[in-house]
Amino acid sequence: MSDFEKRLTPARPDLAASYLRGKVEAARFVDGVTMQVVDVSAPLRSAPTSEAMLDTEALHGERVVIYEETDEGWCWGQLARDRYVGWLPSNALAKESAKPAHRVRALRTFIFPKSDIKSPPMASLSFGSEIAVLREEGMFAVIANGGFIPKQHLAALDFREQDAVEVASRFLGTPYLWGGKTSAGLDCSGLVQLALQSTGRECPRDSDMQQKIGTPVSFSDDENALARGDLIFWKGHVGFYAGEGKLLHANAFHMAVAMEPLSDAIARIRATGSEVIAVRRP
């Protein structure tokens, strides 16, 4: 297994996951320890430093299999859901506690210290965050750490949104952030991943990986060939076809999640030397 996908394989010359024994070369192999994101989110970086590139983010409640923890406060591991590998800050993680049974359905919600919406919030959680609810108290769900979240902002973990494009459109105006995956900032593939996962369809993290999901659609600037929800790919970029000739995407031109005529986006991106390279129907 010399030619493996490094983004999805917990293997380095000095260390690798035990399940890769015999498949990769490493000085030692270790069993992982499952941890959980307890911060509002956790940055996953390419190196154990806050100055390293942000590859993606792990949302509150996500599980991470950790293979190494440094004295400097960094953990190296693999996200359980989309299998991405990288470095996360140790203080954003803790041993697994109660299993989440709910997730945040609102774009963003607040955690209050008591069942009073006038009390100063302790924190906020983004769309897709997973939480364990202990009980209900009036209009609130009481979560494992004792915080209170409005019940209207939650859905059962097995709840499935019906329309990925509608979900993505909730993020309109959200700032563009390379590697981001929250309502505070996200990138093109992060938007696609969040929206598709909310409908119950697993989705890899990066646009080149997403280019392999679903079925191919033949397209040569003919919008009649497209259906709402199709994924349109350029090199390093992806967006949703939203119907009626519109493209919905997080992009660095608008520095935000934006809706625009697909023809305008194609012409603008073509002017930079990039053509549509694929269309996929999830």
Describe the overall structure.
The chain is mostly beta strands and 282 residues long. It has helices at residues 164-169, 188-198, 207-210, 262-271, and strands at 16-17, 29-30, 33-37, 41-45, 54-59, 63-69, 74-79, 85-89, 93-95, 102-104, 108-111, 123-126, 130-131, 133-137, 140-143, 148-150, 154-156, 181-182, 185-186, 215-216, 231-234, 237-243, 246-251, 256-261, 278-281. A six-stranded antiparallel sheet has the order 20-25-21-22-23-24. A five-stranded antiparallel sheet has the order 8-7-6-3-9, with no helix packed on it. Strands 13-10-17 form a three-stranded antiparallel sheet, with no helix packed on it. The mean pLDDT is 96.
Q: What attributes characterize this protein structure?
A:
single chain; 282 residues; mainly beta; 6-stranded antiparallel β-sheet; 5-stranded antiparallel β-sheet; 4 helices; 36% strand
What is the terminal separation in angstroms? 29 Å
Apparent shape: globular
- Low-confidence segments: none
In the sheet with the most strands, the strands line up as 20-25-21-22-23-24
**Helical fraction:** 10-25%
Largest sheet: 6 strands, antiparallel
If you compute it from the alpha carbons, what radius of gyration comes out, rounded to the nearest whole angstrom?
A: 20 Å
Number of strands: 25
| DSSP helical segment count | 4
Task: Briefly note the structural class of the backbone.
Answer: mainly beta
Beta-strand proportion:
35-45%
What integer is the average pLDDT? 96
Q: What string gives the helices and strands in order?
A: EEEEEEEEEEEEEEEEEHEEHHEEEEEHE
